[in-house]
Amino acid sequence: MGIVTQRVASPLGCWTHSRWSPPHLAGLVESFWYFEGTVTFARERNFPDGIFELIVHFGEPYRVVEGGWTGRCSTACFGGLQASSWVVEAPASSPPVLGVRLHPAGAYALLATPLSEVSGLTVDLQDLAGRAADELIECCHGAVSAEERLRRAADWVMQRVARSPGVDPAVAWVAGQIERSQGAVSISELRERAGFSKTRLANAFRAQIGATPKQYARTLRFRRALAMVNAGADSLAGVALAAGYYDQPHMNAEFRELSGFSPREFLAARRYPESVSIAETFFQDLAPGPL
User: Which of 11, 102, 175, 192 has the fewest CB atoms within 10 Å, counting from its CB?
Assistant: First the structure.
């Protein structure tokens, strides 16, 4: 698939967004993206989705103002798996931003360090990759177009993952089963089939996936439910069943714990086009409602 660029003009702002999922990095990288333009509201709320994200700022960096970690991001930063929603604030100048959305296998191959060390955090990429972080910044800043920046970032990722041994095959198999089922699977059955003890699997998952198997499955289950609610599913009870929850009250409780809001409160918010993230101002005006 080639690079797809969309130009958006809406009450939430005017911007250009480019996205690319190169086939040669499938299974490691979900997508590369590039954003340039202005937004009406500086703050954006994001939700946990089981994806790691590397960000390169082409100007004043963004700030994380709510979440497990808060503070100003570095020019190139890396975000670990999140267990709850977080809010990012864009600077007034709205500089361009490049992102790399990584599956756990891609994040582990890229960093070659235990992913549990960055769980819930946003870390300076230089602290993780050393001089290679500066090389990424330099090569992306030297590009003359969004497309060239995306391709240079892909080349940088490819060079690093090619030198990495990657995730243990047994861990990768368990993670793949969780991903394919979108979290609706028995972890104990997967553990037995893979030949792990409970402790050994949990430790290996924390290091190579960034969370325990149950935590990872929980996030992917929520991601599916969130996507279905966002797409306008007819029935919340049907969403709960399709996403692998015991019933709707179970889903509602998980939804609130991971997002901070009920499904109906989420639906009442203004979401960005082609996204489940929302303009934070709208959430601030919402009063808690019924599940």
Answer: 11
Dihedral sign for Cα 177, 178, 180, 185, please.
positive
The stretches of the chain forming alpha helices (DSSP H) are 104-111, 125-129, 131-141, 146-161, 169-180, 187-194, 198-208, 213-230, 236-243, 248-259, 263-268, 280-284
- Number of residues that this document lists for the chain: 291
Q: Residue 136's closest CA among 63, 78, 50? A: 78
36 phi-psi bin (left φ>0, alpha ψ -120 to 50, beta other): beta
- Note the maximum CA span of the chain: 53
The amino acid occupying position 34 is: Y
The span from the CA of 43 to the CA of 285, in Å, is 14
pLDDT (tens digit, 9 = 90+) per residue, 154-193? 999 999 999 998 999 999 999 999 999 999 999 999 999 9
Q: Are 221 and 210 in contact (CB under 8 A)?
A: no
Tell me the pTM.
0.94
- Residue written as token pair 């047994």: 170
CA–CA dist 239, 233 (Å, integer): 7
User: Which residue is listed with tokens 């990012």?
Assistant: 88
CA–CA gap between residue 269 and residue 258 (Å, rounded): 16
What is the rounded distance in angstroms from the CA atom of residue 242 to the CA atom of residue 251? 11
SS3 assignment, position 256: helix
Per residue in 11-63, pLDDT tens? 999 999 999 999 999 999 999 999 999 999 999 999 999 999 999 999 999 99
Contact 31, 101 (CB under 8 A): yes
CA–CA distance, 261 with 31 (Å, rounded to integer): 27
